[in-house]
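Entry 14. Ran structure prediction on the chain below.
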Amino acid sequence: MRFSTIFCRLSIKLTLRQSSVELFRSLPRQRPPRNPTKQRFIQKPKPVKTQTQDPTIYTRDTVSNIYNLLKYSTWESAREQLPNLGVKWDSHIINRVLKAHPPMQKAWLFFNWAAAQIKGFKHDHFTYTTMLDIFGEAGRIESMYSVFQLMKEKGVVIDTVTYTSLIHWVSSSGDVEGAIRLWEEMRDNECEPTVVSYTAYMKILFDDGRVEEATEVYKEMLRSRISPNCYTYTVLMEYLLGTGKCEEALDIFFKMQEIGVQPDKAACNILIGKACKFRETSFIVRILRYMKENGLVLRYPVFLEASETLKAAGESDDLLREVNSHISADIDETPTAEVDDTKSSDDSRLISSVLLAKQNLVAVDHLLHQMKDRNVKLDSFVVSAIVKTICDRCRTEGASLALEYSSEMGIHLEKTAYLALVGNFLRTNELPKVVEVVK
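Output, structure tokens:
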């Protein structure tokens, strides 16, 4: 067979094979079904963190925990627990704890513990000044001077704030000459007074009758280009009221507003309280008008004093009640029924309902005054409940009234009530009252 014939046959076979292959390839092929749940890009699941993050711990919570530990634990127990609190100790934390006013003795022990036990810690003028304030507020002037001397020995910077605190507490103890010496020492050490220190020193001099010296201090402050603040003007007006110069005091009252210094609530309370002592009713009315326009109110003791002053002068107290509508409403709600001297249990139920249900402590004060005047004796548990509630609200005037009432009526209070009174009077530096409670 010829080669050409073989080649042709082979070509035909190859052609047939190619055509069959092409035919096979041209046939429609069924594609595999798509999985709708299968994604084109598979994302790996993120690993779940099994470790929970610690909640944020705020400074106020830390300070509160340390304060409660110092207040409610013995020092031996507190000293063992303090290193295990996990606190990052610094001057700010120590100062905040001291400013929370733990018991004075424990505050001093904590102060010394921090200096001795906290590695690398040294007290600065902030913590020293706060410790000075604690001793000064408690009337421990010698201890305060000891801390001041310790500051000098340690080379701690003593600034105007520290000196102002010392001057205030020394003068409060009655040692005006000592306060003057501290002022001169502050000036010798080139500590420039601030408006606070100038004002505090002026008040000390005015109260001691050193008018010329106080006036010179005021002029010095103005020469130093230090602008008086609201309290500075209040000190000046308070002095003028005490000397009967009401018109001059009013002149300052209105001129300070013209230069942008507005009398605040504290200033108005101080001025009206001072005016009541000298029966200056016209001055009281002028201040009340300002308070009405600016939404200011009086403290309850000042309100009572102003009300008595206006009534004694035969003048209406309508403006006083309008300005202090919250107090007037409380007094108007006070039960006015006649008190039966023979029914102590009824009186007890009455005052208990006012105290426990309404928490109307102004009405309680009014009733205590009424029962004291009528010589009506309440049950011990009622007066004890009153004392504890009043002390919880830090109402020193009400606590003094309750103590006076129980003493005159011969009522023996519960132990917790006596402890509440002691704590309240210690916080307000009413040491004679503390002695009275202990007796």
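The first helix runs from residue 3 to 26. Will compare against last week's run tomorrow.
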